[in-house]
Amino acid sequence: MSALKVMDYFFINWLLPISAFVISQVAIYKLDEKKLHAEFVREGSPASETIYGHWKILVRWVIPCILFVSLFLQFLDLLV
């Protein structure tokens, strides 16, 4: 296996999902809730309030599950 293929495999299949997980968790847990809300929700728009709630659920629960499943499948591919 060439060096470029190894780097491609490592960066795309491992580093990208791990960094996406870290960034999503920092965004939901470490950033100020008031600033997130102010940036996401437009005043006078109930739809943006609903979308913000859905975004929080996705970032907190759905995205980490999808990323861990993808990493687990990559790990299983290493065993074969």
Descriptive tags:
80 residues; mainly alpha; 3 helices; 86% helix; 0% strand
How would you sum up this structure, described in words?
There is one protein chain. By secondary structure, the protein is an all-alpha fold. The protein is built from three helices and no strands. It has helices spanning 3-29, 33-40, 46-79. Helix 1 packs antiparallel against helix 3 (46-79). It is elongated and about 55 Å long. It starts with a helix and ends with a helix. 0% of the residues are buried.
Kindly report how far apart the N and C termini lie: 16 Å
Structural class: mainly alpha
Number of strands: 0
Give a quick account of the main beta sheet: strands, pairing sense, barrel closure: none
- In what range is the share of β-strand residues? under 5%
Runs with pLDDT <50, length 5+? none
**What's the helix count?**
3
Radius of gyration: 17 Å
Overall spatial form? elongated
Helices and strands in order:
Layout: H1 3-29, H2 33-40, H3 46-79
Structure in a nutshell:
The protein is mainly alpha-helical and 80 residues long. The chain has helices spanning 3-29, 33-40, 46-79.
